[in-house]
Amino acid sequence: MEKRVRFKSAWLPWVLIAPQMAIVLVFFFWPAGQTLYQSLIQQDAFGTSTEFVGLENFRRLLADPSYLASFQTTAFFALMVAVLGIGLALLLAVFADRVTRGALLYRTLLIWPYAVAPAVAGVLWIFMFSPPMGVVSHALQSLGFTWDHLLNADHAMALIVMAAIWKQISYNFLFFLAGLQSIPRSLIEAAAIDGARPWRRFWTIQFPLLSPTAFFLLVINMVYAFFDTFAVVDATTHGGPGKSTATLVYKVYYDGFKALDMGGSAAQSAVLMLVVIALTVVQFRYVEKKVNY
């Protein structure tokens, strides 16, 4: 029998959600409104004079080659982080799900990176790949491969991709492992009795049942790559060499806090917000159709 809760007072539901609504308004809608307002004005570095310029900040952005190039950089970076991060996490989750001895130890070690702050993760990877003293760069040099992310743009991009994936892989691993453990073992055993090999059992049974989890992680990882990787980029490459690793979110920070172009930085924030919203809508509109719930 279905049970329904009825509030005696019409104001009680609004009182219960008031704290959450206050947080959303203060920390989400108010900053978003301020960003839209500041994107339409131009002010000096000290904020003493303000001039309404309308869409001029957006026109300057579209005419800036470096800003347009950051779109390509961000798209490549986000694609690598999302695809490789999800793929590696799924592979680790499959292996961890099959481990019988020491499973708790393996899972704990795989979860630990998520507790590391993004800036700390960037510092760890910069130390490992630092050309004069990094352990990994020294090992690569002994194999005849010269690593230098300070001068080589491809090396710098590879570095921030690896650091960002390592930071997020624990999050993806947790969801995939939980999804694998929720699949009834009777389905796997029945397929094994019918003669299906491990790869076929995974591709025809486990992976389709994991599609809702994979779709959720795809959306989360794209948002993560666009927004939450600023600290990784800032701690490793500072957007260099040149501007080869200057993603959209890093360029917002650089133009606003270093170049002191507040109006242009606010316009970039507005564009970035619209891009992520549009990308999320497209994912729900087209990619979700292939998800089996």
Automatic annotation (TrEMBL):
Q: Which residue windows are transmembrane per the record?
A: 12-30, 75-96, 108-128, 156-178, 207-227, 266-287
Bilayer disposition of the protein: Multi-pass membrane protein
Q: What keywords sit in the KW lines?
A: Cell inner membrane, Cell membrane, Membrane, Transmembrane, Transmembrane helix, Transport
Its principal location?
membrane
PROSITE patterns named among the record's database cross-references:
ABC_TM1
Which Gene Ontology cellular component terms are annotated?
plasma membrane
Q: Which NCBIfam families match?
A: PRK10561.1 (NF007852)
Q: How does it assemble?
A: The complex is composed of two ATP-binding proteins (UgpC), two transmembrane proteins (UgpA and UgpE) and a solute-binding protein (UgpB).
Q: Which family does it belong to?
A: Belongs to the binding-protein-dependent transport system permease family.
In its UniProt entry, what is this protein called? Answer: sn-glycerol-3-phosphate transport system permease protein UgpA
The scientific name of the source species is Piscinibacter terrae
